[in-house]
Amino acid sequence: MADEKKAAKVYINGRLIGFHDSPKELTEELINARRTSRISHLINIAYHEDTNELYLNTDAGRVQRPLIVVQDGKSRLTEEHLRDLKSGKLAWLDLQKQGVIEYIDPEEEENLLIAVKPEKITKEHTHLEISPVVILSVISSMIPYLQHDMAGKALHGAKMFKQALGINGINYNLRTDTEGFLLHYPQKELVSSRTNRLIELEKRPQSQNFVVAILPFYGFNTMDALVLNKGSVERGLARSSYFRMYEGSENRYPGGQADKFEVPNEETIGYLKEDLYKNLGSDGLAEIESFADERSIVIGRTSPPRFLEEVSEFGVVKEKRRESSITTRKGKAGHVDSILITENEDSNRMVKLKIRSTMQPEAGDKVSSRHGQKGVIGGVFPEADMPFTADGIKPDLLLNPHSIPSRMTMGHLLEMLGGKAGAMAGETIDGTPFESMPINELYDMLKKHGFRHDGKEVFYDGVTGQRMEGEIFVGMCGYRRLFHMVVHKMQARARGPVQILTRQPTEGKEKEGGLRFGEMEGETLVGHGAAMLLHEKFIEDSDKAVELVCEKCGVIAIHDLIRNKKYCPICESSKVYPVEMSYGFKLLLDELKALGIMPKMNITDKV
């Protein structure tokens, strides 16, 4: 056996299986065996010279990507291979079997030198990219001119592809998803990427081409806010539908009783206001295309009583049914779009009812470009007040100039330039990362159509009519409306339900909860010395309680309402005084008692 200090450790899937004298030769041998199909194509071999360790990975779940093999400074993929691929003589798997292409995992990739383009290959290179776009994921490669963006912002932009509204499926009117969104007028982007065409995103677009000007507007697009043109919004810009599904079933209970879809009558236990039932038809279901307000009933239903009634003197039981109708959620009013009547897994009748709301962009809604330039709408202003160019062009969206330098999203500016050129030429501009249309070509296209090559134009203020100083950069950019809408997030309350245990306000929008003023927020008030506001937030607005406390024992006293007597449970003294406290504190005292700890309060007069 070799000297263990000099021999390299050999690991398979992270488990040490032995030592080897010449790890470099072993690595080469294993890689050649993989390229000649003597061992599986899925095995990855990585030798780490610094730690003298050889790792072999064969386990599932590794991310692998294909690369072209480079040997002695030459790519193994020849013109002959390409001809055979085009004619159909060769397939992808044949290239893999011949060792022209191999799949590499992140661990093996650490030790490779990969050329981005064939002309960049040197003697040191081990592999070549099939296309520079393959470096990126499917979603990242859909961002045009990505190579000019900061990595962090490109990542932001890629994350928001998943939040964009578009056409989620052409059967959206038949689907019964809990929530659904539909962009009314999606457009194919003027600046596109090859990936968009390959995955056929252009057949199901999720963007609209906005005319964007980079300039401030009376402080309404401060920081990340954006200003929209009301005229564009009225013409359908970023307009969408929101679908919400409500379902109910006629459940069966022991004893042959069952729920029933119907319009509850006034004798029903828990009968609500008559107005709430106005949308229901004779079958207890809301009429199609009727407007359902928030918290109004869309599925009328009654349930049998929880306990059997007593028999009347005539030996007849008149069943009093309970109200168990289904109402729309708070802040989600809309029209009844469709109703599906079917059966559930227990063979009970089930109804699925879809509510449709038209969502017009408003202040507080979120939009984003593909370069991570996200923001909320700060205002929607009349078309007459929007700035305009000498040709009378009014932008759909005004972006704050401060959004660009710190984020370094040059791809956003190039897309605006490309969009403008593409709109004038009537063609799609190729913005594929690393292989995009050269900027000089965009300059020429703009000059040809009578525009300045740098995308800047003279603007006039729509409010005063005066010419603006300096030139404004303006162009076309693909913007996406995201599903974060202000009507679904708005939350406010004055008074409302409280939790039974702590008597503090409930949590969450659906439960009509309060906004939590937490420990950190409380510390800010302490820092400002705002003692009265601290008291108001933590006591008055939360769980204020007045409890009697014994002066002698310092424990919570008893108020016997029947005998109208206040006394201490320990010493039975009547020297008990009301003390204002948080109910949460009183609960803490009770919990300490349950642990066998006797907390006592020292009460003195207020100074």
Write the layout of secondary structure elements.
Elements: E1 8-12, E2 15-20, H1 23-35, E3 44-48, E4 53-57, E5 65-71, E6 74-75, H2 79-87, H3 92-97, E7 101-104, H4 106-109, E8 114-115, E9 127-128, H5 151-159, E10 179-183, E11 191-192, H6 194-198, E12 208-214, E13 226-229, H7 230-234, E14 240-249, E15 260-261, E16 291-292, E17 297-299, E18 301-303, E19 322-323, E20 326-327, E21 334-343, E22 349-359, E23 366-369, E24 374-381, E25 388-389, E26 397-399, H8 410-425, E27 429-430, H9 439-448, E28 456-457, E29 459-460, E30 472-481, H10 486-489, H11 519-528, H12 531-543, E31 544-550, E32 558-560, E33 565-567, E34 576-582, H13 583-594
Descriptive report:
There is one protein chain. By secondary structure, the protein is an alpha+beta fold. It folds into three domains: 8-135, Hypothetical Protein Ta0175, Chain: A, domain 2 (Alpha-Beta Complex), CATH 3.90.1070; 155-239 and 362-481, DNA-directed RNA polymerase, subunit 2, domain 6 (Dna-directed Rna Polymerase Ii 140kd Polypeptide, Chain: B, Domain 6, Beta Barrel), CATH 2.40.270; 241-359, Beta Barrel (OB fold (Dihydrolipoamide Acetyltransferase, E2P)), CATH 2.40.50. The protein is 19% helix and 25% strand. It contains 13 helices and 34 strands. The protein has a six-stranded mixed beta barrel. Strands 5, 6, 7, 8 and 9 form a five-stranded mixed sheet that branches. A five-stranded antiparallel sheet has the order 10-14-22-21-16, with no helix packed on it. Strand 1 and strand 2 form a beta hairpin. Helix 11 (519-528) packs antiparallel against helix 12. The radius of gyration is 35 Å and the shape is extended. The protein starts with 7 loop residues before the first strand and ends in a 13-residue tail after the last helix.
